[in-house]
Amino acid sequence: MEPEAVIEAGRIMLPGFGLPLNHRPEDHFPDAVNDWEQHWPHTNRERCMVAFMQDVTLEENWDQRVFQETAIATWKHDVVGKDWRRAGGIRYGDFTDAMFECCIEELQAKARLYQETGIVSILDIEVRITRSDRVISSDMRSFLQKAARNIERTSLRKIDWSSGKETTLTQDLESTSSARNIVVNLIDPAMYPLVYGRSRVLPAKEIDLQDCLDHITQGITVQMPDKDEMQKYVDGIYYTLFAGKSQWLPCNVEFPDGINAKITSYVNNLHPKDHRNFYPVLENIITKVMPMWNLVYSTVYKETMHCEKRIECYQAGWKYPITPPYDPLNIRDDLMSGLIDDDEWQRRTNIWLRNFRVIDKPEPRSKEERAYHIHDSSVTPEAMANYTNILGKADGIQVIVKMRAMYLTPENPVCDLRNEFCLDGALNEHIVATAVYFFDDENVTDSRVSFQARFQGLNFEEDCSFETGDLRPLDEIFGLRNKTPSLQKVGFATMREGLMLAYPNVVQQKESAFQLKDSTRPGHRKVLTLHLVDPRVKILSTANVPPQQADWWAAEFSTSEGQLKELPKEVVDMVVENVSDFPIPKQEAKRMRDELLLERSDLQNKIREILRSYKVSLDWSGDDMDHGSSSEGEDDDWL
Description:
alpha+beta, 17 helices
């Protein structure tokens, strides 16, 4: 970078432009690579409890039924006899009366909060993952559906990025029986991102929605970062984990009245004039999702909304269901008559006792203990609406917007994204939380969004004692297996039209396949995704980077005041596609996108490799870290 430019008065100083790419202040939200981990693995029983409560909160009028004895009795009958490995993927899962009592008490507390806020924590095991079917009204959902259709109509060509093939998107796509199963990115942050060595940045000013188009082609080219700026120090090793080629561009959002969101810079790939009616819809959605983001953010950041454990386990061992008899095999007479000696009597008795014992699985805290800890006591409507913690000293937030549509047909009735567990974005984007809104379903089944988190897998004996060499209790209580990755499934959230999901970007997530309900008819699913950038780490945004789309530039210059106004459309198109420097033609942007996605895929693979290198250590022998390798024979139910 130019030393003289860095110190120029009034120059913007942000990561990748005036500051090293990997720069971040001391006060920041942790990342999942090596800044954050669960303090401890959670018991299989607690995971069963969370899964049960997730299911209940999907039911209609659940917030009223949790106070009705008939509904409670039905739930208890169903959950106690459930096959948890088959239904929830939890080995050795079970459900006791004490667990059920604790769940109902907690569900009633969740219901009271839901009735005031429309938000419920569904997967709250050290982190909080929240869901809502109320924060976005049905009218607002209808506006969003219309806006999405408008984007589809005004886009002449779309890309099936999952297959890399181009297809024409027409209004009768879904009624065409021969149409492909297709994934269309309607708003794609991977198109026209900030590209190091290619994009232009305004060095000393910011632009807004009104004047952004006037600044196309202005600015100075952002330089490629040095190699050491792309690295992160992880347990004694430097890894290249920052995307050295690109950064997704967020829009800037402010809260003029302290409550309602106002987008102040253009959303990348959402034209500020052609789609001006979409901006108020996005602002309304961001306003409504802020309390959800605040809750998931504050649970992790300094644990200001602490999440209590339901079940403590200080010793993993065995117990006897009842006090065993002194002579369980009735061979005392043989001992007294000399047919067997003391050693033989003890050997046979010990075998019987080992077969008689069971794993001592801990129960939830007692009602008195729960009253003392007051589960979720810090989570109130007032706390969720107070953005002091999430904003810090920032006067607003930055949001990366993505919207996609998935079309299924009778010939291709299943949408399988084939994605692995991953974090959102690259470390460059400093994404701390994500909101996903399923806003338009037609003839498709529910989806599952699954989550997993890394936990502290070393020095287990400091908090939970167990007999050396006897690892079965740890397996049945926690699902722990020696030398396997210290990753634990948090659970999954069921999603369908009308549901909003928010989660912190310290847990890995992946989305399951879904399919047509009626295989004789086509169907679709449309999803809006909003990524929140850490307000404590401001990054380059659309306020700093003017629009890069050559077709936007051509449209501006083809107006009555523009330089291309006298030229036929065919000539204008030729000019646009043959721009040699800037702005960027669409075909070049597509080629760049494919190349940039390969880099991001490599980074995600490297992060997965690092997270899987942390191992559960139960024998304290050998190296507890094994960067780049994974254990053989790992159980899919566990990972």
